[in-house]
Amino acid sequence: MTMPIDQQIAELRAELADACLRPRERRKAQRELEFLTEQDRSEVEAAYFAEGESWSAVHAVELAALPF
Question: Please, which residues have CB within 8 angstroms of residue 33's CB and are 6 or more apart in sequence?
């Protein structure tokens, strides 16, 4: 079972704050953090658009009756 993305992001941020990381380890952690942040953002966007689509499906008759 995998950790939630927000928990992974928090752990990577804590790892990046560690002063003992070598430059190579720091770059790797930074790339992983960027990837997870982008993935988390796309999940939030998908949920936002799904909510909009479900709203329009519920109100399809009202939308069809609009005069434009």
Answer: 9, 12, 13, 16
